[in-house]
Specification:
Blueprint (H helix, E strand, L loop, with lengths): L12 H18 L4 E10 L2 E11 L8 E2 L17 H8 L7 H10 L1 H15 L8 H12 L31 H13 L5 E5 H13 L2 E8 L2 E10 L2 E6 H7 L7 E6 L3 H4 L1 E8 L6 H15 L4 H12 L6 H11 L3 H11 L1
Parallel strand pairs: 1-3
Antiparallel strand pairs: 1-2, 4-9, 5-6, 6-7, 7-8, 8-9
């Protein structure tokens, strides 16, 4: 049943109409599938602030959705800090504060590039309902990720981080795989980072699939909803960058998490060691772990439908459905503990 319109409904009719059309586009793009989404606080290209209730996964019809227009920030000019409607919309993004400094830096250092990106966002909002720009999004991702292997890893990450820089490989050659696993765990147990010991057969499956599908999309539960990250393989390194950061910074977007995989002991010991570096201003260890776990979820799965999301993202971007990523994450339960902790912090 359609919710009753409040006193502000008529005054905000234009905004609500736009939000309703955008929501219809989401439903059309998602093909009616995904988690039981009941409330959408705001819609952005490639990013939804989603709240779900404990109704499990299933089909969602437009009649089950409540659409809320984006509320302009009080005390600000109607056009945002730069006087443009697109600027106000960008600031209304629930993850805007996380990237405020970098966005403002781009606005100051290259105003033309900043305005160009805002114009692209405005063009997207003017597209007809159901129109898909996933292909353009993939091009944006490729433009950002292609140079990763050609330029030094800066912004606090180690370039060409080797296994020998962590421990003496010669000293563990006489150890068993289990003993090495224990040494690796003990070494990182007191460190605020992500690490793992991956069995040979699982890594081989991941690596084989990564060669044909080097890019994938994962979702991170946040208090505001879900934030999307793009994962890009560069050799045995896996770089993760927030989608909104790519959209606003383009080639200058910095990664927030890098996973380093070391196959040096794979042939002899049957294991691959993994550790990570992360930008702690954007991620904590639990959040980085949630992202890292999705590598196994999407690349090492036996479930055909799950890996097909990775294939679709790489080869048929116009058919890709963002909500399917959230559905897989919720079905796997990987983000449940993180969401529980966030809810406890909120209360």
């Amino acid at each position: 049943m359609e919710p009753a319109r409040g006193p502000r409904a008529e005054a905000d009719a234009h905004e609500e109409e736009e939000a309703g059309a955008a929501m219809a586009a989401v439903v059309a793009a998602a093909g009616g599938t995904g988690p039981a989404v009941l409330q959408v606080a705001g819609l952005y290209r490639g990013l939804c602030a989603v709240r779900s209730r404990a109704l499990g996964l299933g089909l969602v019809s437009p009649a089950q959705l409540r659409v809320f227009p984006v509320r302009r920030g009080s005390g600000r000019p109607a056009g945002g800090a730069d006087g443009s409607g697109a600027g106000a919309e960008l600031e209304a993004n629930p993850f805007y504060d996380r990237y405020r400094d970098k966005i403002q830096q781009l606005r100051r250092s290259d105003p033309a590039a900043f305005e160009s990106r805002l114009e692209k966002r405005s063009e997207f909002r003017k597209q007809p309902v159901g129109h898909s720009r996933q292909g353009d999004f993939i091009k944006c991702v490729e433009q950002k990720t292609d140079p990763l292997g050609k330029q030094p890893v800066s912004r606090g990450f180690t370039k060409d981080k080797t296994l020998s820089s962590i421990f003496n490989i010669e000293m563990v050659k006489d150890k068993t795989a289990e003993e090495i696993r224990q040494i690796w765990q003990q070494y990182f147990a007191a460190k605020d980072t992500v690490y793992a010991v991956i069995p040979e057969e699982k890594f081989d499956l991941i690596w084989t699939r990564a060669q044909s599908c080097p890019t994938f999309l994962c979702a991170l539960p946040r208090r505001e909803g879900y934030e999307f990250f793009v994962g890009q393989w560069t050799g045995t390194e896996l770089h993760f960058t927030a989608l909104i950061n790519i959209q606003t910074r383009g080639d200058a977007a910095a990664s927030q998490l890098v996973l380093y995989h070391y196959p040096e002991l794979k042939e002899e010991k049957g294991i691959v060691l993994m550790t990570a570096e992360m930008d702690t201003t954007f991620l904590n260890v639990a959040e980085a772990q949630c992202i890292a776990n999705q590598v196994q979820l999407f690349y090492a799965t036996d479930r055909k439908e799950t890996y097909e999301l990775v294939e679709t993202f790489n080869f048929r971007p116009n058919e890709f459905k963002y909500m399917s990523v959230i559905a897989e994450l919720e079905q796997s339960g990987l983000g449940a503990e993180l969401k529980c902790a966030q809810n406890q912090d909120k209360t």
